[in-house]
Write a structure and sequence with these properties.
By secondary structure, the chain is of the alpha/beta class. Helices cover 45% and strands 17% of the residues. Helix 6 (189-204) links the parallel strand 6 and strand 7.
């Protein structure tokens, strides 16, 4: 048996709308306040850490980059939550600039580079942007070095623009889908990239065997963030690649074993020159 409460009546739609208005206004106000706070924090961070390089606008995206040295172009792509200064503080930029033209980018949303929300910044989307930026600054071909999440962008560049990638150096990369704890981290660009790691690796894994350019893979044997088996697996799938698992080194292998990274760069550069020299001799 059902009882009807004669004191209860459905509220008119106009009344519901009136009650909803303050809630909606509160949400909008909170969102606006959060946006303003984020902008203020970004400006504050920029004042504390002024840009060390130049800016270029490509496809409506403002990118910050450094360009040092002469010789074969070497492009550096940092990991999630990082920026150009990560390569600068390691000494890698200064060391590599003695032999190469080093170009290091703040990837979209990191450092001083913008990250428009109208784009889902997959490795492929970032590869398109970096390729366009390199063309704009007069770099037709380059060795591409990626660290951590940056390895996905480096691989996407090699897959989509093989004629523009002389060689790859992949350090502490994530190449195959597995369970990741950091996909639930919530911090703007870092969160977006964490969420994209698994699907991006799943998409790119099908293309690894197609790569023809020299590939040097470097991993830290003591990496607690991305197990070194990821690098070993990639090495097995790219038969002509080299693998160096550095003992006593963790995820930031470019910081703690910078010399190993330079050795890998020099190795792929020499491999790239060798076929050209053989062709000229013939």
């Amino acid at each position: 048996m059902h009882f009807l409460d004669i004191n209860s009546r459905a509220l008119p739609s106009s009344t519901l709308a009136q009650k909803a208005l303050p809630i909606a206004a509160g949400v909008v106000t909170a969102a606006l306040a959060a946006a303003l706070l984020n902008r203020w924090l970004a400006k504050k961070a920029e004042r504390r850490n002024p840009p060390i390089g130049r800016f270029i606008t490509v496809d409506g995206v403002r990118l910050h980059y450094v360009d040092r040295g002469t010789g074969t172009p070497l492009v550096l792509l940092h990991g999630n939550g990082s920026m150009i200064e990560d390569f600068q503080s390691s000494g890698l930029i200064d060391l590599a600039a003695k032999k190469y033209r080093v170009i290091a980018f703040d990837r979209p949303g990191f450092g001083h580079s913008h990250r428009p929300r109208s784009t889902i910044w997959t490795p492929e989307a970032q590869a398109d942007l970096i390729a366009a930026a390199l063309k704009e600054i007069g770099v037709p071909r380059a060795i591409i070095l990626g660290h951590s999440w940056g390895t996905l962008v480096a691989l996407a560049l090699a897959v989509k623009y093989p004629q523009e990638v002389e060689a790859l150096v992949l350090a502490s990369g994530y190449y195959y889908p597995n369970a990741r704890a950091d996909v639930v981290i919530l911090s703007r660009a870092s969160a977006a990239e964490s969420a994209l790691m698994i699907p991006s690796a799943n998409t790119l894994r099908k293309q690894y065997r197609l790569l023809q350019m020299p590939v040097a893979i470097v991993a830290g044997a003591e990496d607690r963030l991305i197990e070194s088996e990821q690098s070993a697996h990639l090495h097995r799938n790219i038969p002509h690649s080299t693998l160096r698992c550095v003992p006593g080194t963790g995820h930031m292998v470019h910081q703690t074993a910078t010399g190993e990274i330079m050795t890998a760069i020099d190795r792929v550069a020499a491999q790239q020159r060798r076929p050209a020299a053989a062709t000229n001799a013939a």
